[in-house]
Design a protein that fits this description.
By secondary structure, this protein is α+β, with helices and mostly antiparallel strands. Helices cover 15% and strands 29% of the residues. The strands form four sheets. It has a 13-stranded antiparallel beta sheet with strand order 10-9-8-7-6-5-19-18-17-16-15-14-11, with helices on both faces. The protein has a two-stranded antiparallel sheet with strand order 1-2. A two-stranded antiparallel ribbon has the order 3-4.
């Protein structure tokens, strides 16, 4: 695939000035909110107008929406601009990732991409913008990139100098403060049969709290807490996981515990990291695939390849709708393409290559990070033979009651087994609660035991 490096003058200046030091100059930080968006994206549109200028994103909920609802589509009247199929994919190859091209090859009769007008919907609370601007002049990597300091609340490196800084922006992007979810995942067979795995999850983002400071975060060495409990199917009910993610993973690696219903015991789980198979995933993703990438970046060398225009899932409100049933989404081979909205956006391409002496099932990973949201939108994963192994997509939208961009569904395609895993199905269930009140005491081994008991 042809590489398209389309860095603007503003971004190039930022990269040059940041190359010697993670902290950018005051002059470069001043570009945030002027030539750059408050989060570091290019504010201007592209040359042909197919990507518009960012105008603040979604600034208020859709009329009639109330918290607890599935989110009505603010772009419901948009029409499909064009459809990419296996027959015409060559016409659009410069806008497609290798993984997208491969899916056309594997499913020539059913996979397609309905491309809609580009809507730069990303937005956040003002205090996140303010914090991001502060971080630009203070944030820095520590422990050979395995930790971070001098940052809180907003992305740490809005003008990234290298691939490590870009992936830390994804890891630390704002997703609210406290959140609870009731979600499902499914791993359909080749024929399309599936069993729903029902999950309840709680997240407390220490890094994102309005009162968070870099000094306190470094002292506590905590980024966030995560707790997950399986409620269905019956054979897995009560299985539970607790994670405490740390700010400096060299000083203190990720802390994790699991609850086993058969033994009724909580055990420390240091293997909940890297390429350990993901929870009840049928072996279709790794632990560090969750949220497209999570955890320590220490096993890879990270290269900031550049910025390019590609077609990615975006503003997937229809896929998120409570008017759609799981049976409509989960079709053989891939999710229902008629429910997916694709748009052209600028992304940072970041290539992760396994370090010498390190082990992982993915030798190389290529991440396509949306410039507006810092959400990894797509990933191509290669095995030790340098062949495409898995392809993943994050179908995002703006949870405009917060507001914050986040994925509504993550889909991992295993190209060898011709199966996929869909994580985050909530169409027939409850919506995220971003107004939850969670305490650190909700994320202890004792709390995990109480959550897991059936």
């Amino acid at each position: 695939m042809k590489k398209l490096t389309i860095l603007s003058a503003a971004v190039l200046v930022g990269l040059v000035s940041a190359a010697a030091d993670a902290k950018v100059s005051g002059a470069d930080a001043a570009k945030l909110g002027t030539s750059l968006t408050p989060m570091g994206a290019e504010k201007a549109g592209n040359a042909d107008g197919s990507i518009p200028a960012w105008d603040g994103g979604i600034t208020k909920p859709v009329a009639g929406y109330k918290p607890g609802d599935h989110h009505p589509d603010p772009y419901a009247e948009d029409k499909v601009l064009y459809t990419i199929t296996n027959a015409n994919k060559a016409q659009y190859k410069d806008l497609l990732t290798p993984g997208e091209m491969k899916l056309f090859e594997l499913y020539p009769d059913t996979f397609k991409m309905n491309v809609y007008p580009t809507r730069r919907s990303a937005s956040w609370p003002q205090y996140v913008y303010d914090a991001t601007k502060r971080n630009a002049s203070t944030a820095e990597l520590v422990a050979d990139g395995n930790g971070i300091k001098g940052a809180a609340i907003g992305v740490p490196f809005p003008i990234p100098a290298n691939g490590l800084e870009a992936i830390w922006n994804h890891i630390l992007r704002f997703r609210g403060v406290d959140a609870t979810t009731e979600r499902n995942q499914a791993a359909p067979t080749k024929g399309g049969d599936y069993t729903l795995v029902e999950l309840s999850e709680q997240l407390r983002f220490e890094y994102s709290r309005p009162e968070a400071t870099p000094e306190q975060l470094e002292k506590d060495n905590t980024l966030f807490y995560f707790k997950q409990v399986v409620s269905q199917p019956a054979r897995l009910a009560g299985t539970a996981l607790l994670v405490k993610e740390t700010m400096d993973q060299e000083a203190l690696p990720r802390q994790a515990w699991t609850y086993n219903t058969g033994q009724r015991r909580v055990r420390k789980a240091p293997n909940v990291a890297f390429d350990t198979p993901g929870t009840v995933s049928d072996g279709l993703r790794t632990t560090d695939d969750y949220d497209m990438f999570n955890g320590s970046p220490s096993r890879y060398n990270w290269e900031l390849v550049g910025k390019k225009e590609i077609i990615i899932p975006y503003n997937d409100y229809r896929l998120h709708s409570d008017k759609v049933k799981y049976d409509e989404i989960l079709t053989p081979g891939h999710i229902n393409p008629d429910l997916v909205r694709w748009e052209k956006h600028r992304v940072w391409e970041v290539k992760a290559t396994l370090k010498d002496g390190m082990r992982h099932v993915y030798k190389t990973r290529v991440f396509y990070i949306d410039e507006d949201s810092w959400q990894v939108a797509a990933t191509d994963m290669y095995d030790n033979r340098d062949e495409l192994y898995r392809v993943a997509f994050a179908h995002n939208l703006n949870y405009y009651e917060v507001p914050t961009p986040w994925s509504t569904l993550e889909v991992f395609h295993d190209l060898q087994s011709r199966r996929y895993l869909a994580i985050g199905l909530d169409n027939e269930g409850q919506m995220y609660d971003f107004n939850a009140t969670l305490n650190a005491s909700d994320f202890t081994p004792d709390a995990l035991r109480r959550s897991g008991i059936r």
